[in-house]
What does this fold into?
Amino acid sequence: MTGSTRLQRHLCTKAAAEALGIADSTIRKWSGLSGEPGVIFREGDHWRRRGEAPQSPRIYDIRRCAEEMQLHGYYIPETTRNFLTADA
It folds into this structure.
């Protein structure tokens, strides 16, 4: 994670992907936004839209996404694990 990204519990797509140690395209795929199979992040549980418009930016709950990733056996970066432990 770069020094420019401040870790928070709720982050936009690019910052959430960086905090979770995955690519932007992966977070979109796992959110069902690419039209490909493999959805593990569900709207309302792991992410929501900032506004009501369909094009409104998505905001991800890092804790819930990290927990879901761990259930599927994916690696969570140490800085994110430490943040989530301190945030508990």
About this structure: Residues 1-5 have pLDDT under 50 and may be disordered. The longest strand covers residues 58-61. The CA atoms of residues 36 and 75 lie 21 Å apart. The beta strands are 10-12, 47-49, 58-61.
